[in-house]
């Protein structure tokens, strides 16, 4: 079972290339730790490498949370309801190579969803997103 439910790579390689150039500033740290249900930006190697990928910690493991904290991953949110849905994200391919049999990043960047459809037919993916804004109390 995968440790994280990760998302953020675009289906269209040209669009992903454009968005991969947008970097998200590193967090300086915080009081929150990478516990169960925490949402965190994924990162490449080194400072300034965050972009469009995020993950949700799916393991109730203080050791894993501490390891992610030590690596500089700072949670930006938390799933407070619906972790049962997060656990339905297909994780059978495991982590990215060499630790698992998941997609190769280079091919994913070059080929996008065509690569996923051909090589990873069971992988879960996001079809669409809708932004829902909270109404202010006086608007209710």
Short characterization:
25% of the residues lie in helices and 16% in strands.
The portion of residues assigned to helices is 25-40%
On the 0 to 100 scale, the average pLDDT is 85
Shape: globular
Kindly report how far apart the N and C termini lie.
Answer: 42 Å
**Structure classification:** alpha+beta
Rg over CA atoms, rounded to whole Å, is 16 Å
Strand order of the largest sheet: 1-3-2-4
Beta-strand proportion: 15-25%
- Give the low-confidence spans: none
- What order do the helices and strands follow? EHEEHEHHH
Write down how many β-strands occur, each being a DSSP E stretch of 2 or more residues.
4
Oligomer category: single chain
The largest sheet, given as strand count, sense and whether it forms a barrel, is:
4 strands, antiparallel
Secondary structure tally, helices: 5
Q: Can you offer a commentary on this structure?
A:
This protein has helices at 13-20, 62-70, 83-86, 105-111, 113-119, and strands at residues 4-7, 38-43, 50-57, 75-78. By secondary structure, the protein is an alpha+beta fold. It has a 4-stranded antiparallel β-sheet, with no helix packed on it. Helix 1 (13-20) crosses helix 4. The longest helix is centred in the middle third of the chain and has 9 residues, at 62-70.
């Amino acid at each position: 079972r995968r440790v994280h439910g990760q998302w953020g790579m675009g289906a269209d390689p040209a669009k992903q290339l454009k968005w991969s150039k947008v970097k998200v500033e590193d967090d300086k740290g915080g009081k929150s730790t990478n516990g169960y249900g925490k949402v965190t930006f994924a990162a490449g190697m080194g400072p300034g490498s965050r972009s469009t990928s995020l993950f949700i910690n799916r393991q109730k493991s203080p050791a894993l949370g501490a390891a992610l904290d030590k690596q500089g991953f700072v949670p930006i949110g938390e799933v407070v309801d619906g972790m049962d849905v997060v656990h339905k994200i297909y994780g059978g391919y495991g982590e990215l190579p060499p630790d698992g049999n998941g997609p190769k990043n280079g091919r994913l960047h070059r080929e996008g969803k065509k690569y996923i459809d051909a090589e990873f037919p069971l992988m879960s993916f996001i079809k669409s997103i809708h932004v829902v804004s909270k109404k202010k109390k006086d608007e209710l």
